Amino acid sequence: MIGEGHPDKVCDRISDAILDAHLSQDPSAKVAVETVASIVASKAAVNYQNIVRRVLKDVGYDCCQKGMDYKTVNVMVCLKEQSSDISQAVISKTTLETGAGDQGIMFGYATDENKEEKQQYF
């Protein structure tokens, strides 16, 4: 079970709150929001700006009329080094015993069909 303070859960809650803010003002809004928290454990020197721009160019985002231009888009890179506890567990041969086995893929959608009150973040 992933706790509510887990970065994936926090990101989901932020995205949901942004969606709720739009829908509260415009019920027919079309919103696709992705919030990401990144942690890296690597000795590699990676040029994230160049990678993002190359991918955007390959996809076809080459002018503002298409929504963004790979040459002028604002790319913000904010990475935090992976904690030593997680790093040790991931590198360890006994991953399941140390508790780093919570990586997985989730499928689903946001809904307000529960009995709990929705928190407003806007």
From TrEMBL:
InterPro entries: ADOMET_SYNTHASE_CS (IPR022631), S-AdoMet_synt_N (IPR022628), S-AdoMet_synthetase (IPR002133), S-AdoMet_synthetase_sfam (IPR022636)
Keywords: Metal-binding
GO BP field: S-adenosylmethionine biosynthetic process
GO molecular function: ATP binding; metal ion binding; methionine adenosyltransferase activity
Pfam families: S-AdoMet_synt_N
Domain (S-adenosylmethionine synthetase N-terminal): residue spans on this chain: 2-83
PANTHER family: S-ADENOSYLMETHIONINE SYNTHETASE (PTHR11964)
Name of protein: S-adenosylmethionine synthetase N-terminal domain-containing protein
Organism of origin: Medioppia subpectinata
Lineage, uppermost ranks: Eukaryota, Metazoa, Ecdysozoa, Arthropoda, Chelicerata
